[in-house]
Amino acid sequence: MTLLGDAIGKVAGRDFVSQVRDEILLPLGMSRSSFSTSADRTPLAAQGYRKGAEAEDPPLRDVPAGGLNTSVLDLSRFVRMVFAGGKRAIVGS
Fold first, then answer.
1. Which residue from 6, 15, 52, 57 has the fewest beta carbons nearer than 10 Å?
2. Distances in Å between the alpha carbon of 33 and those of 6, 30, 49, 55, 92?
3. What is the pLDDT of residues 27-84, one digit of tens each?
4. DSSP 3-state assignment of 83?
């Protein structure tokens, strides 16, 4: 995933995060989605636990390999696009 993310950035002529945000996330209306190497600290974000107690999530090394923070509704927009063969699905159709 890291190599693919780097290749996407090189072909696009800009960083992976900007390319995916502008070409995938925003056109799909995924306004509550972003990439980061640190855990999502927004109030509605899931909290990690270890042995029954809240615990800090370890930082990610590579953004393309798992750095997408998103909501269930935003993720459903992405899944609809995948099931529509890569086309933006119209809600309610």
1. 52
2. 20, 6, 23, 23, 22
3. 999 988 888 777 777 777 777 888 999 888 776 677 777 788 888 999 999 999 999 9
4. helix
Amino acid letter, 39: A
Distance (Å, whole) CA 27 – CA 13: 19
Structure tokens at 76: 């459903």
- Which residue, chain included where needed, has tokens 């609809």? 80
Predicted TM-score (pTM) of this structure: 0.71
User: Residue 18 is encoded by which pair of tokens?
Assistant: 């900007």
Residue 24 CA to residue 19 CA, distance in Å, equals: 8
d(CA 17, CA 58): 20
